[in-house]
């Protein structure tokens, strides 16, 4: 199922609702609109935040300028004398001429000179000379300089007021200068086009960036709607946890990004292992190397916790990887059983041929009326097999292991190999896991038979002894070519074998499985040179036997002491 048809289907299912709401469903369109709205809002807020202090700054500049004009006017030489000589305010008097000269030179709206009573001696409108000022001159007449925005007879203006002092520093009047507020607004309006041009440029750059980001998001999301992405994620979760194949996703640093339920079961991991490095979660070993992609190839075999796994590794575009796992334990065991069945069939065929030869010999002896020789020959043939079975059952008291060794002895005899149980062998019938010990013993004996077959004086010796009342030591030696010292650790690695692969798959798993089973029970495995010149494998399992009650202990091997005769 592809994503595009699903997205189209999602849009077709809700035509009326989408048309009524008018909101696009594609991720590209929604993200673009949201980014444009954000950029527009940020630009508008930034412009407003800039205009507010800019207007205040223009007001402050106008008030400072008005105050400076007032200060320079009050400093005009002789102006204080003109106000205090006792003359009356005159629209054509010298004070009016000085004030008008300053007003025209500075571009102020008005320059008003007043006496201590608040009577104008100058004004931009001459008919107002001699009238009382329209605003309170108290602070200026008290000797303080004032600047503010106020309304007067000439409208709203930025004002500056300073005291007019005589030569002795006494206040004899005041000077009030106003700058029309319209000029301040004009400066603000004249600055707006440039400010809006910058804001428009910022908005355009933001819109272009939003478009580019949305285009990239469109490619990464394959132009899907949010509802489709949510549905795909739900389907992915259902698929990951529903398939019977383990899936482990790794990030570029080799940390576990996600794993499904089957992967947790096969690798014996827990959800809290997510986020850990693969080496920290699994520990060093071939399984870690295979999952991390450090072992080339496909369908690679690994052993983890007694399970035989088939793993594949695939890299992802972001530098991470996805590893898949399949449980091949049952298939491997079936394959080994098939190998054993083929071997047993071959042995039975050879035994049938040998049995026919014996019957012919026996028939010939009877026809020659050599009855004593026939009885002796038959007793000898039957006694060999019976002696082997009795020897094994007396020393190995667990029925599963005893039956296994009897069968292996028959196969060994047909292959020309003498399979014997060492004199020191004595294993009681209280094994905790006889099937797992049978797996270990069967793998070691099969390898020993393969190694010893064809050698001079071919033989395999098996020893099973008790250690510390609950432990079992298993030793299998052969007369084969042996294993060089530099390769004795390699034989326990997955995939290592000196034999040709069987028809059902790959070799190199038997000894690796033996080591994993031993380590899972806290045991150990080792290989050395045997007494017969070949290899000798030793497996120690410290807790393989059920402990005996104190009253039943006493045998040197940890077995029950036989009851005394009465």
TrEMBL record:
Enzyme Commission code(s) on record: 2.7.13.3
Keyword hit for Transport: no
Membrane topology: Multi-pass membrane protein
Classification via InterPro entries: HATPase_C_sf, HATPase_dom, His_kinase_dom, PAS_fold, sCache_3, Sensor-like_sf, Sig_transdc_His_kin-like_C, Sig_transdc_His_kin_SpoOB
Name of the protein in question: histidine kinase
Presence of keyword Transferase: yes
Superkingdom classification of source: Bacteria
């Amino acid at each position: 199922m592809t994503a595009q048809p699903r997205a189209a289907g999602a849009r077709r299912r809700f035509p009326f609702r989408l048309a009524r709401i008018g909101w696009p469903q594609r991720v590209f369109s929604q993200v673009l609109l949201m980014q444009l709205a954000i950029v527009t809002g940020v630009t508008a807020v930034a412009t407003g935040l800039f205009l507010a202090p800019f207007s205040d700054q223009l007001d402050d500049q106008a008030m400072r300028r008005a105050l400076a004009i007032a200060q320079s006017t009050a400093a005009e030489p002789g102006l204080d004398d003109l106000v205090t000589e006792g003359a009356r305010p005159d629209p054509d008097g010298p004070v009016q001429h000085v004030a008008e000269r300053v007003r025209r030179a500075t571009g102020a709206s008005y320059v008003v000179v007043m006496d201590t009573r608040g009577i104008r001696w100058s004004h931009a409108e001459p008919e107002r000379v001699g009238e009382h000022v329209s605003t309170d001159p108290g602070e200026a007449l008290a000797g303080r300089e004032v600047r503010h925005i106020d309304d007067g007879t000439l409208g709203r203006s930025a004002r500056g007021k300073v005291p007019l002092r005589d030569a002795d520093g006494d206040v004899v009047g005041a000077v009030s200068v106003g700058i029309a507020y319209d000029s301040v607004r004009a400066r603000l309006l004249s600055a707006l086009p440039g400010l809006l041009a910058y804001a428009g440029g910022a908005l355009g750059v933001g819109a272009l960036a939003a478009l580019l980001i949305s285009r990239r998001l469109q490619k990464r999301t394959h132009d899907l709607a949010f509802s489709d992405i949510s549905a795909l994620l739900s389907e992915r979760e259902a698929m990951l946890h529903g398939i019977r194949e383990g899936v482990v996703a790794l990030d570029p640093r080799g940390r576990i990004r996600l794993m499904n339920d089957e992967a947790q079961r096969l690798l014996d991991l827990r959800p809290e292992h997510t986020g850990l490095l693969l080496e920290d979660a699994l520990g060093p070993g071939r399984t870690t190397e295979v999952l991390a992609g450090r072992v080339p190839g496909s369908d690679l075999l690994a052993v983890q916790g007694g399970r035989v796994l088939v793993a594949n590794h695939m890299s992802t575009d972001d530098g991470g990887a996805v590893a898949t796992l399949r449980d091949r334990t049952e298939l491997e065991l079936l394959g080994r059983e098939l190998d054993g069945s083929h071997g047993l069939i071959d042995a039975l065929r050879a035994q049938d041929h040998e049995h026919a030869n014996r019957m012919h010999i026996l028939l010939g002896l009877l026809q020659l009326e050599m009855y004593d020789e026939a009885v002796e020959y038959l007793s000898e043939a039957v006694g060999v097999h019976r002696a082997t079975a009795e020897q094994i059952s007396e020393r190995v008291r667990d029925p599963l292991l005893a039956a296994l060794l009897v069968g292996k002895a028959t196969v060994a005899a047909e292959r020309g190999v003498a399979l014997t149980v060492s004199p020191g062998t004595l294993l009681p019938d209280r094994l905790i896991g006889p099937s797992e010990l049978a797996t270990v013993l069967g793998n070691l004996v099969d390898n020993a038979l393969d190694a010893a077959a064809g050698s001079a004086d071919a033989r395999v010796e098996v020893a099973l002894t008790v250690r510390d009342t609950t432990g079992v030591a298993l030793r299998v030696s052969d007369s084969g070519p042996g294993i060089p010292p530099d390769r004795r650790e390699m034989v326990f690695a997955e995939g290592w074998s000196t034999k040709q692969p069987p028809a059902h798959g790959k070799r190199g798993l038997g000894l690796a499985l033996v080591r994993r089973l031993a380590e899972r029970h806290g045991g150990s495995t080792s290989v050395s040179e045997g007494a017969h010149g070949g290899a000798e494998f030793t497996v120690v399992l410290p807790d393989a036997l059920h402990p005996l009650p104190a009253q039943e202990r006493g045998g040197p091997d940890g077995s029950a002491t036989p009851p005394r005769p009465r």
